[in-house]
User: Which sequence fits this backbone?
């Protein structure tokens, strides 16, 4: 249980184009999803928190217009990197959390997707 | 404020030797602690977690960790490592603020197992 998928697993795009990454919870409803960015040999940095049906909350220093996040359903959140540039190349990982009313003893645990490698040329 | 410190960026160890990966946290409130493993070009896999109760937590792949409140530590251990344990290990802590939760990661420790 608690499986999260990401699509695509890797993508190469040209500078100036936009790319969309999908994050899906396969066997549970995720009222909250998180997007992380990981540079080579570094830790994960939280970019934003998205709640189903509302606007995402971005961390300080993350450009909202650059990284568009949509959480339109309880099983899908998307991250769109707009007008991508080489410095946006990174490993993007999403995670999902069940509703706090799920009945779990600890409902705050996050379940991680396998990540998406973005390379902007 | 809350932070997670992983003191060792790299830990080289021979196969079948024991290993300890260190993690210290700072927090003024109750904490919920996690260890994740990341293999190259993959996402995170949960190794184990401490929520409450027994301070010795056993996880997958033979790993265990001990929560030490007085030393604010949550070190990861394995009595005998395998080549396949070579990976990046992240310690993390969840901070709760009302109904919101934020997961903060340490900088990671690269475990390199050799013959």
Assistant:
């Amino acid at each position: 249980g608690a499986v999260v998928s990401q699509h695509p697993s890797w993508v190469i795009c040209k500078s100036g184009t936009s790319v969309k990454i999908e994050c899906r919870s396969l066997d549970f409803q995720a009222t909250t999803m998180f997007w992380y960015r990981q540079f080579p040999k570094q830790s994960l940095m939280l970019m934003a928190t998205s709640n189903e049906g509302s606007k995402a909350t971005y961390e300080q220093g993350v450009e909202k217009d650059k990284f568009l996040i949509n959480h339109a359903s309880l099983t899908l959140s998307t991250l769109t990197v707009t007008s991508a540039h080489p410095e946006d190349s990174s490993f993007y990982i999403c995670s999902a959390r069940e509703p706090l009313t799920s009945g779990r003893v600890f409902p705050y645990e996050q379940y991680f997707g396998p990540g998406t490698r973005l390379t902007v040329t | 404020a809350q932070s997670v410190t992983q003191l060792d960026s790299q830990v080289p160890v021979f196969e079948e030797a024991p290993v300890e990966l260190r993690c210290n946290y700072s927090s003024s409130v109750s904490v919920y602690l996690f260890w994740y493993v990341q293999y190259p070009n993959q996402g995170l896999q949960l190794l184990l977690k401490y929520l409450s109760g027994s301070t010795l937590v056993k996880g997958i792949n033979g790993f265990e960790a001990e929560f030490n409140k007085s030393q604010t530590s949550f070190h990861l251990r394995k009595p005998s490592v395998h080549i396949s344990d070579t990976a990046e290990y992240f310690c993390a802590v969840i901070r709760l603020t009302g109904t919101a939760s934020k997961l903060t990661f340490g900088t990671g420790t690269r475990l390199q197992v050799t013959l």
